């Protein structure tokens, strides 16, 4: 019985710390980024989510209703952190491959971040493919810029 009361007290204290805005996410990994992109997640018709490169609005992926459940879960977590802090739920999120091999999605508005490999290789692959598409777009844009000079 004492353990139950102790566990409930700890949960209550944790809940209070989350609600009063004093929660600070852990410091992001110190490994430097070797590749990154800023993303926009746009709600489309009939539950579709479009993933766009934030600066050019180039499409990187689209997930119809019922698809991309892991991506939707990650996005819900990021948006929830913004709502807790009374920040508009739209805006850019950063996806980065770190030198240590970690793939991290982060929110520049809140400082909240997640190392995606913690959710398994198949789930990590979804975001790795999005980053690869964004990197390919950057390379194409750089090549076009060089040929115009």
Describe this structure in words.
The protein is an alpha+beta fold. The protein has 3 helices and 6 strands, in the order αβββαβββα. The protein has one domain (32-144). A hairpin with a 5-residue loop joins β1 and β2 (49-53). The radius of gyration is 18 Å and the shape is globular. Strands 3-2-1-4-5-6 form a 6-stranded antiparallel β-sheet. It is 42% helix and 23% strand. The model has no long low-confidence stretch (mean pLDDT 83). The N and C termini lie far apart (75 Å). The longest helix has 28 residues, at 121-148.
Largest sheet composition: 6 strands, antiparallel
* Helical residue percent band: 40-55%
Structural class: alpha+beta
Estimate what percentage of residues fall within beta strands. Answer: 15-25%
List descriptors.
149 residues; alpha+beta
Short summary of the structure?
With 149 residues, this protein is an alpha+beta fold. It has helices spanning 2-19, 69-84, 121-148, and strands at 33-43, 49-53, 59-63, 93-98, 103-106, 113-115.
Present the secondary structure layout.
Elements: H1 2-19, E1 33-43, E2 49-53, E3 59-63, H2 69-84, E4 93-98, E5 103-106, E6 113-115, H3 121-148
Antiparallel strand pairs: 1-2, 1-4, 2-3, 4-5, 5-6
């Amino acid at each position: 019985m004492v353990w139950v009361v102790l566990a409930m007290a700890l949960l209550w204290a944790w809940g209070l710390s989350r609600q009063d805005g004093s929660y600070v996410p852990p410091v992001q990994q110190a490994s430097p980024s070797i590749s990154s992109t800023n993303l926009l997640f746009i709600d489309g018709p009939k539950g579709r989510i479009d993933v766009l490169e934030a600066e050019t609005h180039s499409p990187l992926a689209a997930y119809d209703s019922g698809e991309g459940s892991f991506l939707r879960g990650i996005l819900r977590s990021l948006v929830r952190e913004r709502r807790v802090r009374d920040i508009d739920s739209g805006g850019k999120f950063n996806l980065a491959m770190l030198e240590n091999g970690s793939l991290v999605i982060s929110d520049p508005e809140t400082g909240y971040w997640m190392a995606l490999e913690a959710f398994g290789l198949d789930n990590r692959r979804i975001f790795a493919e999005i980053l690869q598409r964004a990197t390919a777009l950057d390379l194409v844009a750089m090549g076009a810029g060089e040929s115009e000079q």
